[in-house]
Design brief:
This protein is mostly helical. The protein has helices spanning 2-11, 21-41, 48-64. Helix content is 70%, strand content 0%.
Length: 69
């Protein structure tokens, strides 16, 4: 699903044509899975939804910034 979103962004010229969609998809998904693993290992002491929002605000922009048109 994420890969499709990024591919559509390339087709809609929101992301550059040479955006490494597959690589970025794996990086983002790995980060989110890592967060879920930390949540499980910490007996749920933080709110995943809240931290996912923080991750998106802080990291997604950095991950995509060189590809945004």
């Amino acid at each position: 699903m994420l890969e499709n979103i990024l591919q559509k962004a390339v087709l809609n010229k929101e992301l550059k044509k040479d955006t490494p969609v597959e690589l970025l998809t794996h990086i983002i998904i790995t980060q989110l899975y890592g967060m879920m693993t930390c949540w499980c290992m910490s007996d749920g002491i933080f709110e995943p939804k809240e931290w996912t929002k923080k991750f998106c605000e802080a990291q997604i922009k950095k991950i995509l910034e060189e590809y945004i048109i």
